[in-house]
Design brief:
- By secondary structure, the protein is of the alpha/beta class.
- It folds into two domains: 212 residues, 3-Layer(aba) Sandwich (Stationary-phase Survival Protein Sure Homolog, Chain: A); 25 residues, no CATH class.
- Helix content is 27%, strand content 27%.
- Strand 1, helix 1 and strand 2 form a beta-alpha-beta unit.
- Helix 1 packs across helix 5 and helix 2 packs parallel to helix 4.
- The longest helix has 13 residues.
- The protein is globular, with a radius of gyration of 20 Å.
Length: 250
């Protein structure tokens, strides 16, 4: 298969490097088009007010001075002139579950690939230290061998989260829904060296809802989470009440 890899951690990140190595070792042709530096939490931004630059790092390896979505656009329009069978965004350093998928550059890159007509997967590892990217990469390769990507339909992306465990510790694979989380102390106030007030957005470790068959519950149960997602912002069920309201508008 011919697979495009991208991410939001940057082209030198371990997750994308290890994934490329594993997939190439199993016979896949890999193209990497990724940001030249970390773009975490860049969401689905694209660069409109400054030029983008492309630096060729090696054959089929390109660093882009832009967002993950920019990378997918340039890959599809400029850099890769061969058919792309699958786009994988990741493996991200840290989980992308719940509402965090709205902020994630990793998930956004997969969604941009979907908009461009490619089958796409976003992949994340639920850890920020001592990360077992090799385990997640081997699982992704086995998913491809089992043709998981063939199940992806237009207007959907498979968002996969891996627990940070050795293979023998993982208890299974779960098809899940997107969970819900709430951050504590989401905004931190500090003083800079000159005594001026500054703010940091980020918060402490999130509190996750325990309700439902969610991505978080799977990870907490030492399972791999596969969540089909789709960017459908239409709430059809709310249209009737607005239609009724319009009848009374003078």
């Amino acid at each position: 298969m011919q697979i495009l890899l991208t991410n939001d951690d940057g082209i030198d990140a371990r997750g994308i490097t290890i994934l490329a190595e594993v997939l190439e070792n199993h016979g896949h042709k890999i193209f990497i088009v990724a940001p030249d530096k970390e773009q975490s939490a860049s969401s689905h931004s694209i660069t409109l007010h400054q030029p983008l630059r492309i630096v060729k790092r090696a054959d089929n390896r390109y660093a882009v001075t832009g967002s993950p979505a920019d990378c997918v656009i340039l890959a599809g329009r400029i850099l890769v002139d061969e058919p792309i069978d699958l786009v994988i965004s990741g493996i991200n350093a840290g989980q992308n579950m719940g509402e965090d998928i709205l902020y994630s550059g990793t998930v956004a890159a997969a969604l941009e690939a979907m908009f461009m007509g490619y089958k796409a997967i976003s992949a994340s590892l639920a850890a920020y230290s001592e990360q077992k990217f090799e385990v997640a990469a081997e699982y992704l390769n086995s998913f491809i061998q089992a043709k998981l990507h063939k199940l992806i339909k237009p207007a959907e992306v498979f968002n996969i989260n891996f627990p940070n465990l050795e293979k023998e510790e993982i208890k299974g694979i779960k098809v899940t829904s997107t969970g819900h989380r709430k951050y504590q102390d989401f905004v931190k106030e500090q003083k800079d060296p000159r005594g001026r007030t500054i703010y940091w957005i980020g918060g402490a470790k999130p509190v996750w809802s325990q309700e439902g068959n969610t991505d978080f519950k799977a990870i907490s149960n030492k399972e791999i989470s596969i969540t089909p997602i789709s960017p459908n912002f239409n709430k059809v069920s709310a249209q009737e009440k607005i239609e009724q309201w319009l009848k009374n508008v003078k």
